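Quick board copy: two proteins, each given as sequence then C-alpha cells.
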Amino acid sequence: MNPDVMQNVLYGLEIMWKGMFGIFAVIILITLIVILMSKIPDKGANEENK
C-alpha cells in the first residue's frame, strides 16, 4: 500500500476515534443529568397533590 494512502487512512481513523469518543461522552453526560434530575424532588407537584 502506498505510504501516502496509509497515512491518510490513519489520519481518518484518528478523526473517527475522536468523534466517537465525543458522541459517547455526550450520551453519558446527558444520561447522568437525567438521572440526577429524576432524583431531585419536584416541589410543585407535591403542593398540588396536598
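And the next:
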Amino acid sequence: MALFERKRFVWNEPWFFQQRIRATSSWINLALILGAAAAVVGLVFFFAAPAGQPKNWFEIIGMSIGFAAAIWWLLDGVETRRQAVLFEDSLVVGGDMGKYSHPTTYKLSEVSGFAIVLPEESKWPEPALFFHYDGEEQAIGIDSKAGLTRVAQAIHDSGKPIRLDGWEPDQDQEFKKAFQWNSESSDSSSRATFEQLPDGTPGLMNAGGMLKAIFHQCWALGLWLIFTGYLGYYGYQNWNNLGVVRFALLIMTSIGGLYVAGTYTDRIATAAASFDLMHMALEQIRKRTGVRLDLDSDDLIPVEILEPDQIAKTIQVIHEMGYFQVDSESKELLFEGKKQRWTIPAGAIKSLELEEVQTGTPGQSAMGALNYFVMITLMEEEEKVFAIRHGQRDYGEFNDVKRAAGAIEIYEAIEEILS
C-alpha cells in the first residue's frame, strides 16, 4: 500500500458493535480470563500489605478492577469502535490504539461482492457491511451518520458489486436535479446592481458584540483550564499521600472535564456565539442609511458569499457576508453586506442550483465534510457566478444534514420570485 494512498471513503462502526454481535460462549471465556486476572492482582496486594497494619481495601479492589479493565482494553477494547477506510484496492478496518491495534486489510480483488444488511434482516443491532473473505463471514458495522447510500455508492465506485435494498447506483444525483433552475427567457435587459458602500458606513461588527461572542465561545474551555489547574495544585500538595487510585482519578477527571467542555463548546457555545454575531450585525445595519431590508422580518437569511473557485478548498476566502432577503412584491433579491449592497431583479437570475461539495476524505474522516452551496448566476455587464452558504450555526451537532437544510432554505427563498 502506498504511503499516501488516496482514501475513497471513511466510516466508523457504532460503539461496541463487535461486542454486541459476539456469541455468549465468547463472552463467558473472556469473563473467566478477566476474573482470574483481577483475583491474582487482588491476592498480590492483599498479601503484600505490611503485617499488623489494616488492609487498604479501597486500593486492593481498585487495583484489581483497574488491572482487569486494562487487560480487557488490550484484548478487546481496541475493538469498541473500529474505523473502516476504503482505499482504491482494499478495505482496512481497525481500532485506534497505536501499536496495540492490529488493523485488518481486505483486498478488494479477493471479495466477490458486498451487501449492506439491515437489522431486520441480520438481527444485529445496527446496519452492517457483510461479505466473505478467505472463506469466512465478515461484518463491519455502519454508523448511521455515515449514510448507508453513501457507503454503497463509494463501494460501487470502487468497482465492486454491492446490494442495498431500495438503492440503485447514482440515485443521489436526483437530489441535485430537484434543486436546479435555469431561465427560459432570452430577455437580458434586467441587470443586477452591486453597490459599493461609501466610506464611513457602519461595519457589521463592533467591539462589544465581538467580546460577547468570544466569551460565549470560550468560557467552558476557560473554566476547564482553571479546574485542571486546581487539580494539578491539589495533586502537587498531596503527592506523597495520593496513592495509585486517587492519582488515576485526578487524571480521569481532568480528561472527562475536557471532553464535556469540548462537547459543550462545539454543540452549544459555538451556536450561541454565532447568534451573538448575527444580532450584532443586524444592530449595525440599523445604523446605516438607504437600507432596503426589512430588519424586523423573520425571512432575513444570514449568508456567506464565495467565489466558485473557493468552494472546494478546506480554507476558504469569503467574498462577502451579510443578510439576504427576498422581496416578493418587487420580485427582487436584496442583500446588505459588509462592503456591498446588492439589488437583484428576478430577471437578472439566469440559473440557480444546489451544489454538494466534498472537502477532505468522504465519510466520517476527521477533516472531511459535505458543504452545500446555492450557485447563482447573475447578469450584470456580464455573467457572474457566486456560491451562497447559510451563515447561521445551529445548536447541536453541525452535520451534513443541517448544512444541506441551510442551503435548501436559501434555494427555496430565491425560488419564490422565479417564474
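Board note added afterward: Residues 360 and 366 are 8 Å apart (CA to CA).
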